[in-house]
């Protein structure tokens, strides 16, 4: 937003350059309303050309008198004007043209602009501010910047004046950019604004406030979040949101010394019911089960639907067995269908906090293990026990072997090409990690990455990937080959949060002699959400180095408009789970379309992951997606095969 002000100033000086000896004076508005006290609202910009031309200096009294005379001579009350020194008629004419241009911009720009004095009293506003805030100019000029406004933050809570961008800019003397706030207008309507404020603190001017309507973007962002975090059929939280809600419940239980029962429920023989009676009956059964569980669950309990016919309920419970019996009795009541009464049953796995798990993921996993045992006998519940915990020992062994693999050559890089959707040409690649265990063979990243995250090993793993990616680029260069576009590298939250992340990344690149412009860093929203202020600084430093920045798995979490506006990313990667279902599912297609539309509005690129079919390709073209990646175009392959298939001579390659 503040690029507008830079543009305004540059245009002003550019237009006035031909009048190099002029003294240009911007005169703030003259109000017809009586004032309680006199404010000095004159800001004078003296051009160096005047002194160079030998123009005699004016004393302060003369300058103020000329400013007042110039203001009275301007057309219209309450407008910004200019006055030039009386060097000659040509200079005056050209300066008048400058004033006219500036006034036109101020009047027609669709950005609200409000100006206050050093006490916070509003002294001017442009026409766009009246339309955005629903307040007339006359009423606007009677207000202060910190009183009489109903403003709410992103959580819907009233925002105290000391948090306003305008107040902070004036009291702290710092520039505040892109503060998101919801304003209730006098007519009762609300509007979301992105507000920036810059302190002037001189010549009677306190702060300049600029704001733009972002209501459509906020609505789109919330729609994405709603679609991504809730099951479309039952409107219950999905697995992603369930983890977050369960984590909150466990923290509360820990503070109050409560036991939490986690129940993973699976409807018995649901597939047979779905296939024999039809999907409409199956959907009705799922919705009815959700409604019954909602009646049973308390206000602060966690209730979610996972894939298919699986539900999850977590609640504080002194008697988990009694809760499991109550759930079974509630869910297994007969159901009336178009073909008659239907008897159903369910299997429930129970895990208890803190005995069976110390965090949300572990508790969910153990409840799932217990549910598998219960399902072998059907229509009953089963508790997790220590015998089921052998997987814990397997994870410890896997972590130990991964630690060895980082140094013994068992880890390898694979590369998957990315393509421009309109031209079909390769425009980059993603670096992927593969592990060939000496006794177990190839181990999936889905198995060993979570282990590395739990053991705090992701910084070492990430740096290993970066070093070996640099080494691979050097080998390709030595063979006279180059990648068209950037090479993408995933950076985990642990690696990004390391206090020396930038320093260590720079050291790796410098040691290898590889330019940062060749890389694109992929981050998830979770990576930047922990400490947004630090994240902005780190991301800015990376962009200054020349690296590309992409937000990975977009749509899977809290897709925040604030992050997109404040963090200096240039690309959104749409998660493959949406792409795989978008042809058959209207809700998944709506998510993809909304993400692409939001990205286009914000000037960001989009890349769809997991593209596997021609139907998906055609649909992504229709929606306007920029780039694609997936098995339909190319599988991840070792460096040698990737070079033979996709790499080109350096003259044909350029970073994206």
UniProtKB/TrEMBL annotation:
The biased composition feature labelled Basic and acidic residues covers 59-69
Q: Where is this region: Disordered?
A: 29-95
Q: Which residues form the EAL domain?
A: 395-650
Coiled-coil intervals? none
**Which keywords appear in this protein's UniProt record, sorted alphabetically?**
Signal
Signal peptide span? 1-18
**Per the database record, which ranges form the PAS domain?**
98-143
Question: A Pfam family name for this chain?
Answer: EAL
**Listed InterPro entries:** Biofilm_reg_signaling, EAL_dom, EAL_sf, GGDEF_dom, Nucleotide_cyclase, PAS, PAS-like_dom_sf, Rev_trsase/Diguanyl_cyclase
Q: Where is the GGDEF domain?
A: 258-386
Q: What is this protein called?
A: Phosphodiesterase
Q: What is the lineage of its organism?
A: Bacteria, Pseudomonadati, Pseudomonadota, Gammaproteobacteria, Chromatiales
């Amino acid at each position: 937003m503040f690029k507008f002000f830079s543009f305004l100033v540059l245009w002003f000086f550019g237009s006035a350059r031909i009048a190099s000896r002029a003294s240009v004076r911007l005169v703030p508005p003259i109000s017809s309303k009586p004032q309680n006290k006199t404010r000095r609202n004159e800001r004078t910009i003296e051009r160096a050309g005047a002194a160079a031309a030998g123009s005699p200096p004016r004393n302060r009294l003369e300058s103020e008198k000329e400013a007042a005379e110039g203001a009275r001579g301007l057309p219209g009350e309450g407008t910004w004007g200019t006055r030039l020194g009386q060097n000659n008629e040509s200079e005056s004419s050209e300066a008048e043209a400058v004033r006219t241009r500036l006034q036109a911009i101020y009047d027609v720009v669709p950005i609200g602009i409000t100006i206050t004095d050093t006490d916070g009293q509003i002294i001017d506003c442009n026409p766009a501010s009246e339309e955005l805030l629903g307040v007339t100019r006359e009423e606007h000029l009677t207000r202060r910047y910190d009183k009489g406004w109903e403003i709410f933050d992103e959580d819907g809570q009233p925002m105290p004046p000391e948090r306003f961008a305008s107040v902070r800019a004036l009291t702290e003397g710092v520039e505040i950019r892109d503060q998101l706030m919801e304003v209730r207008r006098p007519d009762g309507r609300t509007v979301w604004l992105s507000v920036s404020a810059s302190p002037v603190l001189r010549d009677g001017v306190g702060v300049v406030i600029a704001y733009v309507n972002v209501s459509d973007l906020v609505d789109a962002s919330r729609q994405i979040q709603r679609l991504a975090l809730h099951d479309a059929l039952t409107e219950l939280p999905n697995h992603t949101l369930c983890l977050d809600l369960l984590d909150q419940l466990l923290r509360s239980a820990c503070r109050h010394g409560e036991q939490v029962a986690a129940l993973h429920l699976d409807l018995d023989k649901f597939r047979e019911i779905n296939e024999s009676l039809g999907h409409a009956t199956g959907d009705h059964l799922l919705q009815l089960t959700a409604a019954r569980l909602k009646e049973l669950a308390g206000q602060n309990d966690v209730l979610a639907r996972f894939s298919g016919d699986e539900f999850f309920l977590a609640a504080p419970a002194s008697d988990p067995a009694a809760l499991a019996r109550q759930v079974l009795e509630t869910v297994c009541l007969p159901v009336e269908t178009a073909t008659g009464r239907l008897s159903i049953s369910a299997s429930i796995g129970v895990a208890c906090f803190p005995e069976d798990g110390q965090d949300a993921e572990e508790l969910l996993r153990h409840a799932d293990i217990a549910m598998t045992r219960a399902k072998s006998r059907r229509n009953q519940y089963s508790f997790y026990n220590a015998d089921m915990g052998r997987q814990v020992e397997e994870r410890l062994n896997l972590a130990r072997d991964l630690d060895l693999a980082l140094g013994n050559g068992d880890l390898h890089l694979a590369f998957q090409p990315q393509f421009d959707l309109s031209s079909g040409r390769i425009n980059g690649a993603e670096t992927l990690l593969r592990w060939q265990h000496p006794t177990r063979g190839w181990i999936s990243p889905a198995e060993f990455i979570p282990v590395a995250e739990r053991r705090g090993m992701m910084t070492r793993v990430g740096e290993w990937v970066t070093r070996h990616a640099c080494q691979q680029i050097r080998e390709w260069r030595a063979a006279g080959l180059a990648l068209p576009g950037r090479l993408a590298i995933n950076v985990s939250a642990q690696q990004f949060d390391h206090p020396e992340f930038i320093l260590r990344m720079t050291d790796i690149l410098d040691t290898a002699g590889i330019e940062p412009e060749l890389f694109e860093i992929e981050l998830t929203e979770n990576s930047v959400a922990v400490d947004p202020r630090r994240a902005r600084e780190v991301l800015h430093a990376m962009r200054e180095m020349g690296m590309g920045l992409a937000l990975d798995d977009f749509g899977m979490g809290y897709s925040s408009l604030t992050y997109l506006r404040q963090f200096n990313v240039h690309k959104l990667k749409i998660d493959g789970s949406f792409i795989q279902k978008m042809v058959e599912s209207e809700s998944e297609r709506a998510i993809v379309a909304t993400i692409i539309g939001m990205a286009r509005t914000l000037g960001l690129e989009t890349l769809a992951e997991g593209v596997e079919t021609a139907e998906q390709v055609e649909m992504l073209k229709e929606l306007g997606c920029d780039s694609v990646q997936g098995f339909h175009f190319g599988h991840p392959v070792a460096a040698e095969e990737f070079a033979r298939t996709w790499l080109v001579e350096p003259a044909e390659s350029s970073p994206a």
